[in-house]
Task: structure prediction
Amino acid sequence: MNELEILGVHRNKKFSPNHIGNDDAIFSQTAKELEKLGCRITICCEDEFLAMETVNYGKIFTMARQKQVVAKLQELERNGTQVLNSAFGIENCFRTNLTNALNNANIPVADSYIVPTDYQGDEVFDQIKGKGYWIKRGDFHAIHKEDVSFAASREEAKEILREYALREIPDAVISEHLIGDLVKFYGVRGTDFFFWFYPYDNNHHKYAEYQQINGNSVYYPFSAEGLQNTANEAAGVVGIDIYGGDAIIGKDGDFRIIDLNDWPSFAPCRDQAAGHIAGRLYQRFLDNN
Result:
């Protein structure tokens, strides 16, 4: 069998807030694991990929996020190139798209509403229970700290929306604030790999003030297998294989997913994850060879 020739497009640094080194590390380790499987790997950055007049690869693995890169990858996919994670799946993880997809599939998520950033009404806030709101930019992933902001009141929430509008962010997601334990997870769909942990216990969570808002972990019992099944289902809904996310565990053991990302850093489990990621990529590339 001829060796697989694969192009890897890694993520630009500005799309790795607080995780530049970790994102580079998991991508590099995955490439090395693919080489161990007999693949010939060529690596480029997003800007180098955009500059290519012709892409002479039938198989691409990528952590890319830049919208122009995603669009170019989608065009290649339409013409038969295999891209993992799929560029269509990457776009589905933009916040507004993700919210719609998970709601439509009845994945257990925080109660969330999509609004234009010039929204100054009260109807949405009237429908959200509990105390406080999370305001998240809708058109993309979080790049800046303010792209995911907690508002203690609807007045504060409206001010955040106004600030988004000034930044020319067209829409936002308003989500209820859930009470419970924050759990972070990483998974590779199609394998048995799934890793979860309490980020506050590991000083991992990228925004330290979240702990002040959510409170310390109480360690409510829950089904880790159930979370894995739900996370895999959610990843399948948006069309990605390599994923990570966050969930809130309630005192009754129920959980709701509050975020899902395409190919995160896998920082606390990188050494274990790289082989599973490479294995999944290799199998899918091989099945389509």
